[in-house]
Structure formats: structure tokens, C-alpha cells
What does this fold into?
Amino acid sequence: MSAGVKNRVIACSLSAFLGLLLTASSSFSADSSPQFISPVDCSVPTECAIQNYVDARPGTGHRDYTCGTLSYERHKGTDFRVLSYDLYHQGVPVLAAADGVVLRKRNNAEEGDYILKGNDAVKQREIGNGVIIEHANGWETTYAHLKKGSVTVSPGDKVNSGDIIGIIGLSGKTEFPHLHFQVSHNKELKDPFTGKKPSGCGEATEQSLWDRSLHKDFTYKGTGIIDTGFAAEIPKHKLLAFRSEQKRISVQSDPKILLFWAELWGVRIADRLTISYKNPLGKVTRDQKALKKNQASYFKYIGKKRPKNGWISGPYTGEITLERLVDGKWQTIDFRQKTMILP
It folds into this structure.
């Protein structure tokens, strides 16, 4: 199937979700734990990326399973983020990660309520629209923040590995579109990358719950570019996932300003970020800066006002380059280029 068929979560309260949803029971017998396929029907890490991992540090503070900072305190899941707002709006299917039976679902939570209305709007509905599936031998998976009305299954339904159960959305307590995927065994939280209960970072991954075919694609990547674009108005970063904001900033003929923007995740202190765009005559507008702190989400734009004689017709090319010092040499961590044509 294709993707066409188809910012950071602040907190996910599974207990609130479970308490409000209808329940159903089912039983399985099996001799081994499941090996999960990817729960998102998009290519990782090119179309989707893992932006947050299970918090591996008990108590205060947070670390992901590698001892990196891609998590937050008491985060219980793995967050798969869509790396293009266009792809997100096309619809990225959420897949059952293994055979099982649907235990619970929610399908009526509004999209974007946390961003637009604040915490009270999602109280006791932090996970938003979601599905919980029971698998063999006491294993369960939770799929959260799905698009309103997209859930295709109901309690008691049998699902096979790879079945579509919904679409990635923006429901519940989240600032960006993604799937929160959570695993438990006999009600005990498990990190799918280690196969163990979180008890500290640096754990071995030999017992990973991911299918072996995913190990290369799911290799830890701590930094990357989420999306880029041209705009005729200064974008409101937190609203970029909304169609209304994309329409507001879209470039029509003869805009008053022309901006090239970029959104990134997992940037680190001392990273070097270079953003530029080139007009049809080859003149480059460019800005470069060293970042001053680690940030889970980072937004940057560069632009110009309309020239007195109007814009030059033709292609404008924007580029964003993220570099990091590795063994004393600058290494390109990620790069993105985009071109648009002004009439």
C-alpha cells in the first residue's frame, strides 16, 4: 500500500484513557512474544521518524534507551512523526503491529484541541483517539493520537499484523501529528527497543521486540529535518499541521514577502544551521548560526520583502543544512532542498 492511501507530546495518561473507554475481553495462548512490524505505513526514517522514545530513567529526569535525550519524563511510548505536512494531510495509515483482538477504542476526540484550546480541552482524553489491541501471551499495544473518525476497528474485532486500524492524527494532548505506540506485557510497560521494563538507559537491544527486518530502518537517529517550505506570511510554528495555516501562508502571485522556513527535531548545542534561498538570477540570501542549546523542536526562517520592481519570475530554491562537529570536522547531519516557481 502507499502513503497516498493513507510539536512534542507533553504527557500521555494511559490510565485516564483506559478508565473512560469501553472494555472487552479475549484470550490467547502462545509460546513466544510477538515480533512487531512497523505500526505506521510510511518509510522510516525518510517519510516518518521516531522523535521520542520510552523514558528509560526511573524517577526524575529523562533519557531514551541509548542515554540520549529523545524522551521526556514518564513518557511511555514510541512517537512516530510524519516528516511532511503534505504527507500528513494525505493520510498516513496506522497498522496493527501484530495479530490480536481489539480491546478498546476511541474515535470521537477532536483534532488539535490541545494546541487551540489548552490542557482543559483534553483533560481525561490525553491520548485522544486510539486503539488497544491484545496479543498472544499477555502482550498489549496502544495506538494513540489518531485522526477523528479514522478508527476502522471495534472491540472484539480480530486483526492481523499489518491491518489498517486508523490514520495518524492530532487528537489528545499533543503538539504535533504523530502516532504514540505503547507496549505492555501482563500490564507491565515494555520498551520495544530493549524488550524490557525501563530501568535505566544503555540496556542491550538483543531482546528487541521489533521484527528483524526493521532493525536497520529503526536504527537510532537523534536529529533531523521535519519539513521545509516557502511562505508569503510568517508561519505560526505550532499551527503548521492545520490546513488553515498552510492556506494562510501559501504563496500566491506577487507576495509582499517571500520566506523559506524549516522545522527540525533533536538539535544539539553547537550544531551549525545554514538556511538560504536563491532567486532565479542566482543571488543567494543566506543565514548561518551555531545553536546555543539542545532543543526537541526548532523552527527557523529566512526571507525578503518584495523588491520595488517586483519579484523576478522563475525558480526560487531553498536549502537547509544541519551540521555537527564530529572528531573535529563538520559533518552534515541532514539536508533538505525545495524549489518553487513564481510566475
In short: Helices lie at 14-20, 85-90, 113-117, 243-249.
